[in-house]
């Protein structure tokens, strides 16, 4: 603490001159800590945001287990698995991008890993769009007046219960996809900063914090995938 | 008048109005305010905006009280009345009570009290104000286009399947506004963790900081749930997806659970900051350290934690299981413990203290008494059997107004008076302020105490008419409306003299009370970076000296400046200083 106070009094601590240091922080370490904690608090907020949907899922799955199993069969677990692999790979490239800035690799390496992350994210979103289109073709858009399943609904399951699954499917994966789209929007300026050579072992907060966000979005999918895709494997009327 | 002068000259003239260079005159012009990243200026922006929304909410309250003056619904039709009480609730809860103290006094004081130059994320802080304004504008637009009639609680299925008013637009405004609350909470948490001055340990923090930390936890963990709930409600309304609709397999009670999972903790967002303000005022104006500092500090966290576990007491008559009801009832009683810790500790602090009758302390006295009444009647409502009798009556209305108005609004006013010298550099007129505090106290009690009696006799809330055959009811309603008029006038008085004091009040010294907090160890108003030299804290919180000793050796802890000018501002005196 005393060195801390001395640095302030002299007005030129060893890192005080760094161009990325905001005026209200004493040093780069404090700035980095504040940014990281801010992102963790934001993620806590996101958990509660998604939590509302997970609660609704829990309530209705307990109430309508048969409907959920039957409806889950309409999702292709092979496509879901492929997308899960794509997303985990994008988390890996993002982790490598954070590492590249932390150890001071060249800007080409930094940008390369980030570009790979974006690319994998876009592949995920493309597959997701294809899946959504599939549901549209099968009449499974859960909006009043649109919901008209082409395949027969199993006995003992009402249309409303069946629709509930697809509504939760679209709400949860849609909110997840929205987070990915926002993520792609956020990483674009970070890539630009990396290309300009702004990141170094001393200053890489934006990359690190974006990495936390991206991994969080990834983890949400890790929960969504089994909850939505893997319910109906042992259901008799399934594929 | 000054159209011919250059902007530079006008800035110079503006600067000359203050004895020092400070955050108010450091920059000049509307742009310097709208694009500011200074937490103190953002606090002022918020102060102006929450006052605006408070005035709108107050106008609707006046309409409610006018209608209830007579038993018959003769001023407005029932449908109009539904809109009026809904607008009152939405404006007051979402756009005044929740942001009131954290975004104004909190924004202004949190960095100063911990010895920081600013909040951790100044740009996010400004963004939160813009989000608040966008949310407020959308909701306000919904009211202007024709309004909402669901009540501020937006219960389904009425709000989704039947109401043909602007539910979606108002909901969108509240949804957006939620993010402003989240960003404020995020900023406070990170600031308190990472920006404390050297020597400012957790247990040297002012209790205002502890209560704001607890408030921020609730903001972070609760607000996203109301956001997703309102989003689901809007989608249900627009697309009829069926999540809350029994006809499609949905469950309307799920909405109530999700709504109150936020909205009950939100009650603590509304009152915890007020408790922080009262802790500061009580210590300063009795010249004593807070009795049982760590108990008061942890009681804030306990309230935040228990606050998340009691939402079911709003659902005692909504098909919730009896066993769930019993547990929610029990935990609701448990929340009374940390609240009572605060009340008892404030009282114990006052014991043998040098009690002052300055305006902030008058509000603190009122807060402690009224919050006790509000809290104790809350226990009536937490009791399973009694709640069924008074559920949805004026008893509930009176209860939460005792906590919200008698608690938070009075704490807000007390805090404004306490820190007005710091915020504006001017003193408010003490005589008028004491008079206004008295008027507000009388008006408040006359408005809301009769409502306890009305509710216990069976007057339901949200009704625009009541039976003329019940003579006592009209007497009580007339008392309530009369009290509301007095309260309204009482609230206008500070509005007038605060604005007056900004130009004509006498200049405030750095530490007028005097108090021990870091915010008082810098000039009034503070310079943009708060402190010329980052303070090093070597003393405990609230090291007050008794008045007799203070007269000899000075106000506070050993190394407090004697109240003179800040080194950064020496030599910038102007001829205007008296």
What does this structure look like?
The complex is a heterodimer of chains A (239) and B (578). The relative contact order of chain A is 0.16. Chain A has a single domain, classed as Up-down Bundle (Four Helix Bundle (Hemerythrin (Met), subunit A)). Chain A has seven helices and no strands. The model of chain A is unreliable at 1-16 (pLDDT under 50). Helix content of chain A is 72%, strand content 0%. Helix content of chain B is 66%, strand content 0%. At the A-B interface, helix 1, helix 2 and helix 6 of A face helix 8 and helix 9 of B.
Question: Secondary-structure map with pairings?
Answer:
The complex is a heterodimer of chains A (about 240) and B (about 575).
Chain A: H1 2-10, H2 28-63, H3 65-72, H4 77-102, H5 107-137, H6 159-195, H7 205-229
Helix pairs in contact in A: 2-6, 2-7, 3-6, 4-5, 4-7, 5-6, 6-7
Chain B: H1 7-16, H2 30-34, H3 39-67, H4 78-97, H5 100-114, H6 122-145, H7 158-162, H8 167-194, H9 207-239, H10 252-286, H11 293-307, H12 322-350, H13 359-382, H14 384-390, H15 394-424, H16 430-457, H17 471-504, H18 547-553
Helix pairs in contact in B: 3-4, 3-5, 3-6, 3-17, 5-8, 5-9, 5-15, 6-8, 8-9, 9-10, 9-11, 10-11, 10-12, 10-13, 10-15, 11-12, 12-13, 13-15, 13-16, 15-16, 16-17
